[in-house]
């Protein structure tokens, strides 16, 4: 892998991991359009870069939740939402083929567009997360599990779901990013194990380092960009952008 390819994949992973546009969908399109495909070890390291990014960006909320796990509702709600997420992810991994998931890429992009538009037009997001009952949190975790579907953005679907339940945009985004931490960590552990048990491959450590740093920096930018877009009521711009990969996916898939 060249340095240019590692930078491209790092940017793609970092930005699309947190922007509501689907990282899995964009990586799949990149493979189809440009023939660029990272080995499993490189993919694990990029996930590690985005994990560091969200931890740094959400450090105040994260550490407050860890220090006060009983008093802070965010800690309990992350655990609660993670249950349906991991249950669905496990079922999909065991019983749904990768080829079927990839074939549904246009459906995932279309579903993300619909969720973003509905949450922008129909929601009245006025509640704080602390005022929210467990049901919206469980539904959010359920939606996050379904977001294993390529093209269905994890951040886009979870933020939109919480907004539809009336949770304000800022709390929805913050909780979505906190909720991504166990998901990304699980991906690093599972893919890391697969990489370690797979056949040995030659590792270009310079390319890996460049890719991880690029994913970390672009991931940080993406987190703050989402928060800024929500505060400025620019949520619909992501739905407009997603029309582009939707059309491309209908052509190349």
Explain how this protein is built.
By secondary structure, the protein is mainly alpha-helical. The protein is built from 12 helices and no strands. Helix 1 packs antiparallel against helix 2, helix 1 packs across helix 3 and helix 5 runs parallel beside helix 8.
Helix and strand arrangement:
Elements lengths: L2 H16 L4 H12 L5 H18 L1 H9 L5 H23 L2 H6 L1 H18 L11 H13 L7 H11 L4 H29 L7 H27 L4 H17 L1
Order of helices and strands: HHHHHHHHHHHH
Please describe the biggest sheet, giving its number of strands, its sense, and whether it closes into a barrel. none
Secondary structure tally, helices? 12
Q: Structural class, judged by helices and strands?
A: mainly alpha
Q: Mean of residue pLDDT?
A: 91
The number of E-state strands comes to: 0
Helix coverage percent: over 70%
pLDDT < 50 runs, ≥5 residues: none
Our Rg estimate from Cα atoms comes to 17 Å
Q: N- to C-terminal separation?
A: 25 Å
Strand content: under 5%
Shape label: globular
